[in-house]
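Hi team,

As requested, here is the filled-out complex form for the adenine run. I kept the field names the same as last time so the parser does not choke. Let me know if anything looks off before we queue the next batch.

— J.
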Amino acid sequence: MTDLDSFITGLPKAELHLHIEGSLEPELMFALAERNGVAIPFASVEDVRAAYAFSNLQDFLDIYYAGASVLQTEADFHDLALAYFDRAAADGVLHAEIMFDPQTHTDRGIAFDTVMRGLLSGMAAAQTKHGMTSALIMSFLRHLTEDAAFETLAVAEPWLDRIAAVGLDSSEVGHPPAKFARVFAAAREKGLKLVAHAGEEGPPEYVYEALDLLQVDRIDHGNRAMEDRALVERLAGTGMTLTVCPLSNLKLCVVSDLVDHPLDRMLAQGLKATINSDDPAYFGGYVADNYRAVAQARGLSRKDLATLARNSFSGSFLPPSAVAAHLAAIDAYMA
Ligand code: ADE
Ligand code: ZN
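And here is what came back:
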């Protein structure tokens, strides 16, 4: 391990943008396909990895939804979640707010309760095994209708005390935040926090809509906000957290090279950016890989990396006392 590697791994950090279905490694995909007798369109693990060459978000989503078909039982969701938490713990993640896409499962006949029980038992195991805290973000698929999102919110009703927030993901362009204004208002009424993917491929207008129409607590990605100076000033002025995902941006061609990644410009313009892995099994790296890749490509200092880690806790949905304890741990680490 280089000095930079061990500095990054040791730095206390939270992960705020992680799709648990996107942490399904090819090895586990094959194991679950076999365990459940599900056919997958790949001959080998190498074959799966070779298919992970994407030219845009939709290319990736097609493979990601196909891969999720191996997830059938409560044990599958437990194993998926714990495999992620093991990797995250090894990267120095102390708290993770993980998204899941219930409609990806309920639409193929898997019960919402099966998904919840498996994920919650994986989260409990992470607490016991690693002392890691975690929270769930239930994401609506934006290529489906708002009525379908309302149905999902209704099915989730008995579980709402175990769900921290709702989110909005899947195919962005053509499915603006405005489409989900009513269901986000209903989720807010129920006391849930709100996040939405905006400005990954979609224009700055989608970021405005996420702020004004959805009233989100965080923006997932937000890269294209950089095209609009007034929007950047507003996001900076309100301390809005952006959950940025550098290796995802590279793999989905949001940036053509990491040397062009806007992360340090975001920090320089006062944006509260964080570093996250998005779908680590598909994009070639977990959270520490993302810190390392962008640090090397953009020449980030240790002070910048500590700022990003601080932002990950202050932008989390942890209670203020827990945030303060994690920030103190970063101060101690830096001293
Ligand atoms: N679902 C999983 N990963 C996603 C991403 N990066 N953007 C939109 N939807 C997603
Ligand atoms: Zn995402």
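Two things worth flagging: The chain has one domain: 3-25+74-334. The CA atoms of residues 259 and 296 lie 9 Å apart.

Thanks,
J.
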